[in-house]
Amino acid sequence: MKIATIIIRTLLGLLFLYTSISYFLHLSPEPASTGEFKAFQLGLMASTYLFPLAKSVELLCGLSFVTGKFTTLANLVIFPVTLNILLINYFLTPENLPLAIFVFVGNIFLIFTHWENYKGLFKMD
After folding, report:
1. Does this UniProt record's set of keywords contain Transmembrane (predicted)?
2. Which value, to the nearest 10 degrees, does the dihedral of the CA atoms of residues 5, 83, 66, 55 take?
3. What pLDDT, in 10s, does the model give residues 78-116?
4. CA distances for 57 relative to 30, 40, 53, 63, angstroms
5. Which of 51, 68, 77, 112 has a Cα at 20 to 30 A from 83?
């Protein structure tokens, strides 16, 4: 289980690092979007802060996953991002769904492997 955790954590970290660095440094061209997804994406871009915020979170969590430091915190911080990735791809771009499922399930897997660290969040005093 420990080797699987390291592999999933590293793969997710590298994926988050690649997407965030690529966004900030404009390393790859934006894929052409169409239909409802294009309207959704234009709305996100119009907000001017949401994409930089999400990509900053991805960068920090990617660094955390690759280094293995603060992984418990990074799992929680990146969870809303992975949930949105899954839902956006499910409803608007189903052709990208396999990667979105990997990211979401990988995040859930990492939360599960660190469950002892989260038990205190669910205690009723």
Report:
1. yes
2. 180
3. 999 999 999 999 999 899 899 999 999 999 999 999 999
4. 20, 20, 6, 10
5. 68
